[in-house]
Amino acid sequence: HADAAMYAAKGRGRNNFQFFTHELNRLANERLTVETAMRGALERDEFDVHYQPKVDHRRRIIGVEALARWFHPELGTVTPDRFIPIAEEAGLILPLTTAILRRAFAAARQWNRERQTPLRLAVNLSPQLFLGEDIVPHIAGLLSEAQLPASLVELEITENVFLGDGERAIAILRGFKALGCSLAMDDFGTGYSSLGYLRRFPLDIIKIDRSLVTGIEHEGDEAMIARAAISLGQSLLKTVVAEGVENQAQFDFLREQGCDEFQGYLLSRPLPYADFARLLDAETDRSPAAA
Ligand code: C2E
Ligand code: MG
Ligand code: MG
Ligand code: MG
Question: Which spans are transmembrane here (predicted)?
Fold first, then answer.
């Protein structure tokens, strides 16, 4: 926003200097408002978590992704794409993620008690948090507090993690592997870093970004790019997950290409705790005949 405002101001001369300062002030105020509201919401434990299922090729639920949700009485719904970066800048990403993980770990523990087949839990870690101090022991502590086995947890990170000190990122990834967690590359196909990290870093899962899934059912360039991304993941022996699957034609295409897991509105939107619990109940998981 600020860049756009500056260019606009340059183009239109001196009068626009005022416009520019106003615009900057407005943005700074808006950010401060969100930041202040966020501190309050954290104190009152108002951040919520929604749960979106991941299914296998037979549409059986095998996992769930925890997604942060925030409704503020005055600001309304604030989306994670907006509040996560603000939390990072305000130094609030650790308490925020801790609140999210506490809820999600407790939910996963509960659901896994009631099931025969394990339900894996995926959570998102922002780059700043991931690369910050002592993240591995912190998450180990939350896992033991929740009595959730690390083997049920997938940590989703993005390519940005690899832009800085690669050795440090590798050490942290190894720490999580030693703990027993799985590691997933989220939003695969949207980043700017080289593909070399796929070989160098101990990742288990690649999540093909929604932008690569859009349009694949029309057998054009989109289909070719998605195919290439899937086969790259397969060649490297990663579990390949497709996100943003919105219709049956996309699901069929992805299944035919050998995707292992599927996530998207076709299967289910992210749901509040109780609704997701009902979705699990409705499945035939408990009946031995289902296998
Ligand atoms: P993500 O991890 O890639 O999550 C997938 C996003 O796509 C979610 O948006 C989900 O609601 C949406 N989605 C799922 N299926 C479909 C579909 O079929 N069509 C469309 N159009 N969208 C679909 P959401 O919940 O708004 O989250 C956006 C991003 O915010 C997430 O992308 C993730 O990067 C971040 N995020 C969410 N929760 C957390 C969190 O607890 N911690 C951190 N660090 N980041 C989070
Ligand atoms: Mg994710
Ligand atoms: Mg993603
Ligand atoms: Mg995304």
Answer: none
Residues 150-176, mean pLDDT to the nearest whole number: 93
Q: What is the mean pLDDT of residues 112-126?
A: 95
Please tell me the residue having the least CA distance from ligand 1 atom 2. 124
How far apart are alpha carbons 199 and 201 in whole angstroms? 6
CA nearest 131: which of 165, 100, 104, 99?
A: 165
Hey, CA dihedral for 105, 111, 115, 120, is it positive or negative?
Answer: negative
Contact call for residues 263 and 52 (beta carbons, < 8 A)? yes
Centre of ligand 3 to C-alpha 207, Å, is 6
Using a 6 Å cutoff on CB, does residue 185 contact ligand 1? no
Closest CA to 70 of 90, 94, 40, 91: 40
Mean pLDDT for all residues in the chain? 91
Distance, CA 99 to ligand 1 centroid (Å)? Answer: 17
Does ligand 1 come within 6 angstroms of the Cβ of 241? no
Strand partners, 261: 241
Q: Catalogue the E-assigned strands of 129-181.
A: 153-157
Q: Which atom of ligand 1 is nearest to the CA of 81?
A: 30
Residue 176's DSSP bridge partners are none
Interface pTM, i.e. ipTM: 0.98
Percent of the chain with pLDDT over 90: 76
| Residue type, position 22, single letter | H
User: Which residues lie at CB < 5 A from ion ligand 3?
Assistant: 186-187, 243
Neighbours of 30 (CB within 10 A): 13
How many Å lie between the centroid of ligand 2 and the Cα of residue 158? 9
